[in-house]
């Protein structure tokens, strides 16, 4: 099996990473893609991919984290341990200002995009992601007074397009995030056809919306299906309509816990978290919905994922 979207780089997996990956492999999960959501998590994704066989990284800036650029005051960024880790992975020699932790002038966004661009040359980076557009108002966020307005959406689009340009330049797959922003997303993609032509894309954790599915079918965009398919009837009806040729599976760990037996739940500090071993539950439910054998769903979605990320 191939878990095409799993945040092993998030703090939920601190101290248990090796155990989680070992359990996933025992369950039959052979390959995992770890997406970044900002520069720091992108660096961590590459570090994890570098350490474990069968694990790959994606690097990118999630639309939620575009808020930091809207709030950028002053336009400076401090480089310390993060800079050192980045330079090591990107094969760069740190400048004196980097190694001394001094302030470097310039646009925070431009600096971050340059960091992502250099990370794209790492051999285990297979995609840019997760990137996209998001109108959801997060209740738990590190950004003060988090609000959605058209100025913020315009900046999200700017960052999204900049990263699509990088994907085009480096011929990388694109992992697309969309949350309650379907119209913005589809119009942005439709108005920038050159940026998606001849590139592999996936609608990560695709909302059960047939406008998204029709666009995906027209442009051969893969559809990511997660643990919510085990309990969400609307998602189950949606999955029935997804062509097998476009279907890939993902856990989005540590989020989107599938419907699961208590004895199989991974616990950390008495909290239950989703892990990539639960991909088998998603496979089983998708097979049931599509009235196919589990073995066929495993084989087809793995083949699709390998094509999506161009893994030999």
Short recap of the structure:
This protein has 312 residues and is an alpha/beta fold. The chain contains 13 helices and 12 strands.
Report the CATH architecture of the largest domain.
Alpha-Beta Barrel
Tell me the count of domains.
2
Question: In CATH terms, what is the fold-level topology of the largest domain?
Answer: TIM Barrel
Strand numbers in spatial order across the main sheet: 1-2-3-6-7-8-9-10
Helix content: 40-55%
Mind summarizing the main beta sheet? 8 strands, parallel
List how many beta strands DSSP finds.
12
Q: In CATH, what is the class of the largest domain?
A: Alpha Beta
How much of the residues is beta strand, in percent?
15-25%
Terminal CA distance: 15 Å
Helical run tally: 13
**What's the alpha carbon Rg, rounded to whole Å?**
19 Å
The chain-level structural class is alpha/beta
CATH homologous superfamily caption of the largest domain: Metal-dependent hydrolases
Mean pLDDT: 89
Structure description:
The protein contains 13 helices and twelve strands. With 312 residues, the protein is α/β, with parallel strands linked by helices. The longest helix is centred in the middle third of the chain and has 21 residues, at 150-170. It has two domains: 2-72 and 108-308, Metal-dependent hydrolases (TIM Barrel); 76-106, no CATH class. Helix 2 (39-51) crosses helix 4. An eight-stranded parallel β-sheet has the order 1-2-3-6-7-8-9-10. A two-stranded antiparallel sheet has the order 4-5. Strands 11-12 form a two-stranded antiparallel sheet. It starts with a strand and ends with a helix.
């Amino acid at each position: 099996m191939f878990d095409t979207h799993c945040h092993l780089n998030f703090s939920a997996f601190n101290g248990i990473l090796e155990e989680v990956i070992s359990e996933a492999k025992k369950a039959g999960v052979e390959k995992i893609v770890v997406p970044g959501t900002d520069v720091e998590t992108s660096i961590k994704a590459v570090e994890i991919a570098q350490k474990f066989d069968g694990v790959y990284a994606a690097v990118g800036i999630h639309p939620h984290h575009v808020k930091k650029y809207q709030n950028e005051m002053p336009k400076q960024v401090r480089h310390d341990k993060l800079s050192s880790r980045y330079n090591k992975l990107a094969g760069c020699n740190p400048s004196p200002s980097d190694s001394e932790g001094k302030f470097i002038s310039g646009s925070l966004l431009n600096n971050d995009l340059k960091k992502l661009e250099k990370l794209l040359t790492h051999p285990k980076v297979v995609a840019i992601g997760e990137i996209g557009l998001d109108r959801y108002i997060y209740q738990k966020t590190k950004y003060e007074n988090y609000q959605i307005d058209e100025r913020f959406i315009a900046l999200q689009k700017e960052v999204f397009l900049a990263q699509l340009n990088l994907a085009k330049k480096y011929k990388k797959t694109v992992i697309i995030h969309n949350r309650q922003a379907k119209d913005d997303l589809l119009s942005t993609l439709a108005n920038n056809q050159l940026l998606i032509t001849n590139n592999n894309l996936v609608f990560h954790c695709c909302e059960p919306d047939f406008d998204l599915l029709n666009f995906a079918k027209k442009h051969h965009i893969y559809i990511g299906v997660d643990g919510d398919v085990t309990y969400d009837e609307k998602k189950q009806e949606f999955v029935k309509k997804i062509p097998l040729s476009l279907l890939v599976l993902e856990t989005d760990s540590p989020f989107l816990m599938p419907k699961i037996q208590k004895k199989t739940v991974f616990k950390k500090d008495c909290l239950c978290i989703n892990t990539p071993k639960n991909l088998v539950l998603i496979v089983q439910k998708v097979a049931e919905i599509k009235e196919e054998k589990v073995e066929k769903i495993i084989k087809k979605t793995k083949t699709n994922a390998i094509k999506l990320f161009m893994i030999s």
